Each structure stands twice: as C-alpha cells, then as structure tokens.
Amino acid sequence: MIIGKKSKVLVATFSPWKDGARLPTNGMVEPFIRYFSKRADDFVLIDQPHPGSDMVLPRIECYKKGKLVGIKNNSFIVSLLLPILAITNSHKTQITFKIRDFLSVCDWVVGQGKSIDVFIGFESVNALAGILLKKLGLVKTVVYYVSDFSPRRYKGNWFNKLYLVLDKISTTHADATWNVSPAMSEARKKLGYNMAKISPQIYAPNAFFKEEIKQLPLKGIKPFSIIYAGTLGPENGPQIAIQVLKEIIKKFPGATLTIAGGGTRKDEESLKGLTKKLKLEKNIFFRGFVPTNKELYDLVRHHAISIAPYRAIPNSVRWYADAVKIRMSLACGVPVVTTKVPPMGKEAERFGAAISTKDNPHDLAKAVIEIFSHKNKYLKMRRSAITAAKENTWENSYSNALMRTGHLV
After folding, report:
1. Element (H, E) at 68
2. Quick one: which of 171, 161, 91 has its CA closest to 124?
3. Which end of the chain, N or C, is less surrounded by CB atoms within 10 Å?
4. Can you give the C-alpha Rg of the chain in angstroms?
5. Full-model pTM
6. Taking the CA of residue 9 as centre, how many other CA atoms within 13 Å lie in the half-sphere pointing to its CB?
C-alpha cells in the first residue's frame, strides 16, 4: 500500500505538557506530525499527556494535507477517568494512565467506524490496543514503536514481568517492531524470544529535520568548552561531568562546562553543591531546562566537545536505548566523549566522531584532554561528526522503516 493515496494513519504516542504547551522531550510528536500529516490523506495523532503534566486527558489532533483541521474531544467514556487520573498524576509510571492510553485508542477507532490503514503505537500498551483493533478488523497494519527497553526496566519483580509479557505479546502480534536502537533486538534474543516467530525487528533511529543538521564555523566555537545536555538524573552522569572538569582545568585552566537540562530540585542542588565543593563556580554554567530543540541545538553548536558520561548501571535502559544527546551533538558538528554504555556511543566511535571510555572521571578527562591537546584530531572528529549526521533525518528513518514494514511512501 502507498501511504498518501486515501490512506488513513493513526499514531498513539505521549508527551509532557506544561503551562498548556507540549514539551519536545518525549514521544516524537513533532516528527510524527511533520512526516505523516503531509503523506496520509487522513492523519490522526492521539497525544497522551505524560504523568506529571498539567493536563491528563488525551489530545486528539486531526490533520489533512499537512494542516491541523481539528482537535477532537474525548468521549464520555474516556472522560470518566478524569478524577482518578487527576489524583494519580505524578512523575512516575501510573497504571491508571496506561488504562487511559489503551482505552483512548480503542474508543477513538471504534467511535469513528473507519478502518485504519496503518496504526503506530508508541510503547506496548498502545501497540496492544492496535493489535486488538486489528483482530476486530478495524486496523490493517500495526507497528509497535519502542523508544525504551530493558530486561530489568522496573524494580518490582511482578511489574517487570508484566512489562516483559506485554512487550513479548506486542512484538509477536504486531506486523513490525520499530526499535530506536539495534541493542533492543539483541536483548530480546538473549531473553529467549523466538526471533523467527516475532515481528520483523526494524531499526528506526531517532533523527532530525534537515534544517536542524548544521554546524557553526570554527570561529563561532568557544575554545576548551564542554557541554552536558540532558536530564540531570544520576544514571546520565552529570556528577561525573563535573568531576571530569576538575581534572581538565589542571591542564587547561580556561576550560568550561555548560550543564543544560532539567531534573528534580534535589538533583540540581546536589550538582551545584558538588560544583561549590570542587571550587568550580567560575568554570561551570547551569542553564537549566532548555524549552525548545532550536534553543538547545544553538547552545550545543557553540561548544567544542559534548560529554555524555552515562553510568554503567546494570540493567539500565541506557544500555539498550538510543542516546539522543549523542546524535544531537553529531548533528551540531560537535565531537563526543562518552562511556561504553550507550549503543549510539559505539556507533559514533565507529564513525570516528566519538571516544568512549569507562564511566569514571579519570578516563573521561583523559579523552577530553587528548582532543583539546591535538587540534588535528579535533578537526578530524568534527568532520566525522558532520559526515555521520548528514543522512540522519526523520525522512530517512521513517521512510526506511515503512518500506521494511511493507508500505511505500
């Protein structure tokens, strides 16, 4: 089937909302809209607000020929969940929100009474809704789209087992599984999934719009500058980034570290406390959460090196998920120093655009100092970053995934 000729595409995903605005940190919402709304004759996006957002009911957006033509209200049935969603609305996985997600997809499709040509369900609960609707003859093709996966995603044994059961059902009964990292397919193989019986495992990497892939001239880059761009949770290693700078300034006193990203108040206070303890207040700049991708990319481009010091925590999703901050750095022409944890770090290293080390301050600092000390090495890594990012577009990612799923675009 060719998407675009009277085709109907439905995507169910999620994003955080704050102050009545959608934040660009989760769910690939904008890429979905920009890619599919211009191709499908009828494109609908069900955006399910992430727990902790300032709204809790799904937002149903309808598009025609690339333009938003309507925002539909939730049905009375879905709206009945409002009180319990409001009570459980906090920043963590909530069963009530999973029920909302499953119900919102089923309710919308059944209510429309129209067959959906392609349904893309972001994460397993949405995919399961699509699989049920396919059994009922209301969906033709179901894609299970996975952004985070780990064999030990949750601490609770029963909840983690449920998570894996849902993943296995989704990979088995969907028509295709889109993984943002090839490590996800390998993890399923190690878990004992019958790879011959589950749906095709298709690599659909995170990407960028063409206008986002650009670099500054060398004169626009601050010498000996390092950027950490990402959330401030300890698994991402912002504490290590600060400790790295302490070693670097022994050789390069003018070196700086910019920390851009949001986190809990406790995370922020801990990092600022460590900065003060190590007497790095003049060398470290805290930018806080950067609200738009454009602002974030502009900030990254002005730095010489990007640091992504993911910690080697057993069973962390970072071993299996895509590292968007590394991709973003390459798109901005910025070489990366990272750890052995993220699959994307290994890919960037193969391109010659990154150095990966053990997750400790000494080894990471040594890698940064090596780059700062050898201009030719830095320039070579920069060229490699630019080359690696050139074709990393949403157009390529989604078109390739659709063709491998059996749809022309």
Report:
1. strand 67-72
2. 171
3. N
4. 22
5. 0.92
6. 27
